[in-house]
Amino acid sequence: MKRILFISILCLLAVSGALAQKPTQPSWLSEAVFYQIYPSSFQDSDGDGYGDLKGIMSRLDYIKSIGVTAIWLNPVYVSGWTDGGYDVIDFYKVDKRFGTNSDLVELIRQAHERGIKVVMDLVAGHSSDQNEWFLQSREAPDLRYSDYYIWPSFKPEEPAQNGPMDYAALMNSSASLIRKFVATDAPRGPYYVKNFFDTQPALNFGFANPDPEHPWEQAVDAPGPMAMRRELKNIISFWMDKGVDGFRVDMAASLVKNDFDKSATIKLWKEDFTKWFDENYPEGILIAEWFNPAQSVAAADFDLDFFCHDGQYNYSSLFFYGRRGFGPNATPSTPYFDKAGTGELKTWYDLYTYQYDAVHGNGYVSMPSGNHDFNRVCTEGRTTPEELKVAMTFFLTMPGVPFIFYGDEIGLKQNPNAPSTDGSGGRAGCRIPMLWDGTSNGGFSTAPIDKIYIPQDPDPNRMTVEKEENDPNSLLNYVRTVLKLRKDVKALGADADWRLVSSLDQPYPMVYERKLGLERCYVVLNPSGKQVSVTLPTEASAPQIIGGSYTKCTYKQTKKGDVITLSPISSAIFKF
Ligand code: GLC
Fold it and tell me: What whole-number distance in Å separates Cα of residue 50 and Cα of residue 52?
């Protein structure tokens, strides 16, 4: 009897997918769909040309209508605005551009009322050079915040390199740290160490193997770095206690310096921060910006990490025009998601399956539709609603937690000519203000057009939420349909297994299987401008088509196998 009970429980767990999660995962995460908001660009409520928190509040019903369940806000802290809010002057206060701390608490309340979680950005690795901690630290070595930063007394020679370094080696070499020494006239010393731009001095979490010849290299458990950890926990608690549901941790891999294999940084997260966080905030989420889920999720216990534009794990071969690979090894390319149909899948497949295998059942790899650091999916070469529907089908039917960058659900278009704003450099083109309707500035702001945060697409035919609401075939309504399907069919969800069914030798169409317990789906994608067919192993019976964006799609069982034929620039979702 006991044995039967045990087997039944096992079967139940297998069908529900409950085995595929780590015990510390927040209960809401496996069903979550994120919407990333860059606050300056979403909705301006007071007519100053910048988006703000009250503006976001006024759009919560729209956000909910898409089918998303959580929001990630890019930084809203008091900032020097030399890096889009990632140069934080006060970690405990909302920037007046966006409103007040009370506005944030109210936004959280209103979002929660609608069943939407709110996740903030945690800039863990650096502050602004205008932060009072840094202003004090630069004065003398024995003040309260002196050891929050790193002050090299001289610049060591960069170690010689043998030939060009690849991306990973460059990011993790000691030469890379020396290149982050910033000369200064501070009374404290001739250099400080930055994390990103010169205006972003690195916070001091210590060095993996302090060199006795370099007195500024403190051990990770020295008093300075330990005080730094306490401060970071304080920041986390401050906002969690106001009702926030977790954080996306900016540059999470950067904390411990000269940590070439990342083992000390992994240890710091796993044995201290993620453990402490899970114990104190069991329903809170920690998302890594690390771009290496095998390290951040599998080893350091983050809930999820991105498979994105950066690091070795980029998806340039799928979506980026112009380059494939990194640095000197980059080659020109047309991506897989392009009507030319000349792309390939192997580059992405090898990187993706490595990460997927490393974390499956133990957290998530997320492939966002975009973010504030790289070109939008709607960019020159891929701008029609039909092309974007194929891409969205992919983003919303892959395993892990989906992330929609605001505006990608309506095909908000990359502005290649956007002027650098708030230190964005080339990244302004994806941070363009949202287009809501036909009123002034697309309903984003009542400010004069020259006061708008970043210029909007001047095309009179530009897509807006209003236009797409009224069109049953719009991208927006398609995204809603796919998200509804994902919610109803658990085999399309975060925890279900994933397997490429089609061959890498014939990349169009791409066919993958999603499977949870006894439920099984095929997703078929044809971004190319030609009709394509693929022959797959024979199934017991033909599946039902349950979704997709196509003019023609057939599934035929033949003597040679099961043949799927799909019209140009199409996608289809089948259920067995
Ligand atoms: C992350 C952010 C990026 C920022 C950088 C420094 O990569 O996504 O926008 O510039 O960190 O904080």
Answer: 6
